[in-house]
C-alpha cells in the first residue's frame, strides 16, 4: 500500500493514471493549506500575496486589473475584490487610469513593500515542501510538470 493509499484510506486505484491525478490533487491541496496557514499570520491570503508580489515587480509603475489577472497563479481569483481588500488594508493604492477612464491603476505602497520585506525573511519556512526529494529528483519533477503544462490553455 502506497503512502497516498494510506493517507486517504483507499485500497487501490483503477489505474496508475488515476493514482497520479489523485496524488497531484492531494499534494496540491496540502501545499495550498500550508501556504494559507503561513500567510494567515500576516493577515493576507495567498492570492493577496500573489498580487502584492506582482505589484512589487511592477514598482514604481502601476498595473491594471487585467495585468494582475493575467499574471495571477490562481486564475479563478476575483482580482477586483482582492485589490479592494488590499486597498482597505492600506497595502496598495488604486485610482482610475489617466489613459483609460474605464481602467484602474494599482500600485503597491510603502506599507505593502514593508510587509513583503517582512514575509521575505520568513518565507523560507515553506521551502521545505520538497525536502524529501534530492536535487536530481526536483529537476525531474520540474521537467514532468513543465511537460504537463504544455497542454494547459
TrEMBL record:
GO biological process: response to stress
Organism the protein comes from: Chitinophaga polysaccharea
Stretches assigned to the HTH marR-type domain: 1-150
InterPro entries associated with the record: HTH_MarR-typ, MarR/SlyA-like, WH-like_DNA-bd_sf, WH_DNA-bd_sf
Protein name, per record: DNA-binding MarR family transcriptional regulator
Superkingdom of this protein's organism: Bacteria
Pfam families: MarR_2
Signal keyword on record: no
PANTHER family xref list: TRANSCRIPTIONAL REGULATOR, MARR FAMILY, TRANSCRIPTIONAL REPRESSOR MPRA
Lineage: Bacteria, Pseudomonadati, Bacteroidota, Chitinophagia, Chitinophagales
GO MF annotation list: DNA binding; DNA-binding transcription factor activity
UniProtKB keywords: DNA-binding
Amino acid at each position: 500500500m502506497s503512502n497516498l493509499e494510506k493517507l486517504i484510506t483507499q485500497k487501490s486505484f483503477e489505474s496508475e493514471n488515476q493514482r497520479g491525478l489523485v496524488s497531484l490533487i492531494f499534494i496540491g491541496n496540502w501545499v495550498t493549506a500550508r501556504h494559507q496557514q503561513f500567510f494567515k499570520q500576516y493577515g493576507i491570503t495567498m492570492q493577496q500575496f500573489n498580487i502584492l508580489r506582482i505589484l512589487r515587480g511592477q514598482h514604481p509603475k502601476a498595473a491594471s486589473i487585467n495585468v494582475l489577472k493575467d499574471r495571477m497563479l490562481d486564475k479563478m481569483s476575483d482580482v477586483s475584490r482582492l485589490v479592494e481588500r488590499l486597498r482597505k488594508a492600506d497595502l496598495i493604492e488604486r485610482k482610475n487610469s489617466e489613459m483609460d477612464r474605464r481602467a484602474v491603476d494599482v500600485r503597491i505602497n510603502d506599507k505593502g513593500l514593508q510587509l513583503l520585506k517582512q514575509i521575505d525573511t520568513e518565507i523560507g519556512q515553506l521551502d521545505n515542501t520538497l525536502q524529501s526529494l534530492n536535487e536530481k529528483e526536483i529537476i525531474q519533477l520540474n521537467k514532468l510538470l513543465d511537460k504537463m503544462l504544455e497542454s494547459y490553455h
